[in-house]
Structure of 2-C-methyl-D-erythritol 4-phosphate cytidylyltransferase:
Amino acid sequence: EQVAAVIPAAGIGQRMQSELPKQYLKLGGRSVLEWTVRAISQDPRIRAIYIAISPDDPYFQQQHFASACPIVAVEGGATRAASVAAGVERAVADGFTWVAVHDAARPCLTAAELEQVVTTALADEVGALLALPVADTLKRSSKTRRSEGSVAREHLWQAQTPQVFRAADLQRGWQQLGTDHPQLTDEASVLEALGLQPQLVPGRRSNIKITQPGDDAIARLLLFDDS
Ligand code: C5P
């Protein structure tokens, strides 16, 4: 089975003037996005990589990708879901039936995690995503930021990426829901809205999403630690 990777990287919007978007931060000699592309191309079943970028992104052209498969830039949309949908649409036009959606800001994905989630997805009716069982005690906060109570974490997982699904299911979901909801923060949500239940594949904490200041330092440790 052949799988297309789709990487949403179009979220630069209003930050662009002031600050370098996080996917273009440098980790050693490579940008976050270059590391991410390298990571997602490690499985031979991934045959093409579609990257959704903003039309006024001045950085993408300067990227040097190390990938065994073709890289296709597509124009992203106003939300993450719209950007992913644009990538999926192009992948479908190129003949792909399965897609592995992966955050641009997760450069520390390993070949083993990727292999597991793709293998599990392709053997499943619905598909699969990497996720992490919640390890901390969860608190519900009051309006004044006091701890009102604890939330049972027993059945709670943090969703990561890659998330590997049939393109047709995602497209059916977006047709029903639209792609303009900022709360569609992952692709599994789209399938869940259709009543489908993707498999959770236990991932690793090291598959971090570079989000906050300091996360890039953690990523450097993870990428360059050979102990
Ligand atoms: O900001 P956040 O981490 O939720 O963004 C998730 C991903 O979605 C980022 O990789 C961002 O570049 C991407 N995105 C996009 N198109 C948008 C908004 C966000 O591709 N319109």
Q: What stands out?
A: Residues 3-224 form a domain with the Spore Coat Polysaccharide Biosynthesis Protein SpsA; Chain A fold (CATH 3.90.550.10). The mean pLDDT is 94. The chain has six helices and eleven strands. The two ends are 35 Å apart (CA to CA).
